[in-house]
Every structure is written in C-alpha cells, then in structure tokens.
Design goal:
With 150 residues, the protein is an alpha+beta fold. The chain has helices at residues 2-10, 29-36, 126-129, 132-145; strands at 15-18, 38-39, 51-62, 75-83, 86-87, 92-96, 105-109, 117-120. It contains four helices and eight strands, in the order αβαβββββββαα. The termini are far apart.
Length: 150
Amino acid sequence: VRKHLREFVESGKGVVVLHHALANYNAWKWWWHDVVGARYILEGGTEPASGYKHDVDLYVTRVGRNPVTADVAPMQILDETYKDMWISPELTVILETDEESSDGPLAWISPYEKSRGIAIQLGHDRHAHRYPGFRKLVKRAILWSAGKLE
C-alpha cells in the first residue's frame, strides 16, 4: 500500500486526508512529515501522546483566502478536537478554532509541493458528517485536490 500511495502522490495527483487518517502511518515519516504536515501521536511511542475530546461545540473560522474554504467558513459544528499533535511550521492553515481543547488548525494545505494535498482534522462522527458545512468542505477539498477548483 505504501508503495502505491507514494507513487500516486509523487506523480502529482492530489490527496485529501480526513480526521482519523491523521493517526495513520505514524512510523512512515515521509507521509506524516512531508505529505500530511501533521501527525496525531499515538500512545506507546517515544513522544508524549496526543489527546482528543469528544462532542465539543467548535466555532470554525477561515484563515486567509483559499478556494476550498471560500463558501464554507465560518461555521459552528459539534465535533472532536485533537490536542498536542505534531504540526509542521511549513503547512498553510486554512481553517482554525480558538477552542482550548484543540491545537487550533482544523484544515490545512500540505507543505508537499509535488502534490495538491489537504488535511481536514474535522469529521469524527455523524454529527460532523451530517453537518452541511462539513460536507461542503470535503467536497470542495476533493475538487481542489483534483485540480478542478481554483
């Protein structure tokens, strides 16, 4: 799987990383460091683990101008927050919150220049999945990563 994923990303195709996938491939530094630009740190490693909090009422705001978030933010959403993740100083944050149980960034553009990558920390469960603003965000992220939204 890693070989095919790397070939896909290296070929310039876009990738959208959603919520739980921020904890995937923790041992594959190229993936979390270069492509995703962040990592939810799992328990049992050499670093302190990241944390989460369920059912948080988040106020989400747009950061800068980006076609993905043009019609999406601001929004109020019930979701899960992540705290104490590793976050690259090179990524471009496009959505954030000031909720104290969150690191702040909720969606960002990958620092990886060979591919159109975007990560969305929002989206834990049905509350988020049914929320129209979240659905629009994911749709726009997919279109942007595919080069169909400028």
